[in-house]
Amino acid sequence: MAGFFKSLIQRFTKPDIDWDDLEAALIAGDLGPRLSLQIVDELKDKARTLHGADIVQVTREHIRKILPETAQPLTRLDGKPKVVLVIGVNGTGKTTSTAKLAHLLHKGGHKVVLAAADTFRAAAVEQLEVWSQRLNIPMVKGPPNGDPASVCFEAYDLAVKTGADFLLCDTAGRLHNKHNLMEELKKIHRILGRKDSTSPHEVLLVVDATTGANALQQAREFNKIIKVTGVIVTKLDGSGKGGILVNIQQELGVPTRYIGLGEKVEEFQAFDSKRFVEELL
What we know:
This protein is of the alpha/beta class. It is built from eleven helices and eight strands.
């Protein structure tokens, strides 16, 4: 994740700062119009004593105030599996992120069960099954185009039977048909509620950092359908952007919990806001 804004030190130096150019540069880094304007306004207030390096520092401090200092990790529950729904549109890396999260939890000493609940996309089920076998983590699947809720229901039973700490459910992401998606998620919620009225305990939304404003729009839409408790940001491995996660935090109050940095299963980690800001800027 290259320091996308480090060029600001060279490009914007006292006394001839082009504020419109600076705002455009911030927006290009996916910080969005609202946040970019806030930063520029703060910089203008300090313009008399401003130097190029100060622009980066003020921007860093502004972003740090928005992001939580530490990402809240997934913690186990006593006596029952913690149910985690992984949601997101197709193409964001949702299924791969589900597998990588399972690997991270498994590596941390937790027992995990996977539910291949994206039953309308055969490739997703097959992909998760390959990961399941590779990572030696049990998975439950249903017939093609089967009922996703019944897959989660069966997977919950397996999680209880095996004493699993976490049940990760890879769900469908057909946001273009929001009514069907909403009804499907409601049914999963209702069916799992027969096993545990407090589930799902976490809802993690997967977004692709390279899609910029589209990722924010996806977060808005999914958050209307089901309360999102955290974000997984993928493809932070070279775009030099990623500012969209700051936008999601500011507008929706939904923190980034995990980030994907590449294709390998190990290239997935808990979000570190301090490191993120240093590398972004």
